[in-house]
Design goal:
about 190 residues, alpha+beta, 6 helices, about 20% strand
C-alpha cells in the first residue's frame, strides 16, 4: 500500500468531502515519482488497474456515502502491487478518517449516551468500541503507555485536528513508527 499525504492543513479547516479530497490527491499523483514500499525501487511503479471502494462521511449532520476509484500500481522491479490511498482514507475501512474521529470525539466528550451516539451516526455499539480500542492502542503507540481519563483522549483528538499540517506532523511519522496508518485495524506485514 502506498500512503499519500493529502491533508497539509488543519483537519478542522477541511470543508470538503473525503471523496473530493481523495480525488484531488489522485489528480496530483504521479507513479513515476513513487518508490516501491516493498523493494524501495525508485521510479519502478506503473499503473496496474483500479477498483471501486465505498467511503462514508458525516457532513452537515448527515451520513454521506460516496464511491472512489482506487489506483493500483505494480512495481516493475519486484512485481508487487500496491493500492494508492490518500491519508483521508483509513485502510480496510469504509468509514473516512473524519467520520471516525468525529464519532470518537463525541464519545470521549460524553456529549450523549452510547445508544444516542450510535443512532446519530448509524453505527453499532460494537463498531464504536472497536474504533475506541484501536484509537487507544494507536494513541499508546504514539504517546507511550500512560493511563489517562476520557478527557485526555478527547483533547488528543482535538490536538490532532488542530495540527497545522496533519500529514507531515502526524500521519507520516505515525506510519513510520508503527508500519500502519492511524486507526487502521488490520496489521500490515513487515518486509
Amino acid at each position: 500500500m502506498i500512503r499519500k499525504n493529502s491533508l497539509f492543513c488543519k483537519l478542522l479547516r477541511v470543508k470538503k468531502t473525503s471523496a473530493r479530497l481523495f480525488q484531488e490527491c489522485m489528480e496530483r499523483f504521479s507513479c513515476s515519482e513513487e518508490r516501491c514500499p516493498y523493494c524501495q525501487a525508485k521510479e519502478a511503479c506503473v499503473p496496474h488497474g483500479y477498483y471501486e471502494r465505498n467511503i462514508i462521511d458525516f457532513i452537515k449532520g448527515k451520513t454521506f456515502y460516496s464511491k472512489v476509484c482506487v489506483l493500483r500500481v505494480c512495481c516493475k522491479a519486484c512485481g508487487h502491487t500496491h493500492a494508492v490511498l490518500p491519508d483521508v482514507v483509513v485502510p480496510y475501512a469504509t468509514y473516512s478518517l473524519f467520520f471516525i474521529l468525529r464519532v470518537l470525539a463525541e464519545y470521549f466528550a460524553h456529549v450523549m449516551t452510547i445508544e444516542a451516539l450510535c443512532s446519530r451516526f448509524a453505527i453499532t455499539s460494537s463498531m464504536l468500541y472497536r474504533w475506541k480500542g484501536i484509537f487507544l492502542l494507536h494513541k499508546e503507540h504514539w504517546l507511550g503507555a500512560i493511563e489517562v481519563p476520557d478527557l485526555f483522549s478527547f483533547l488528543f483528538i482535538r490536538n490532532l485536528c488542530s495540527l497545522n499540517d496533519y500529514s507531515t506532523e502526524f500521519s507520516s511519522p505515525f506510519i513510520a513508527l508503527t508500519n500502519c496508518s492511524f486507526l487502521q485495524q488490520h496489521e500490515t506485514r513487515r518486509k
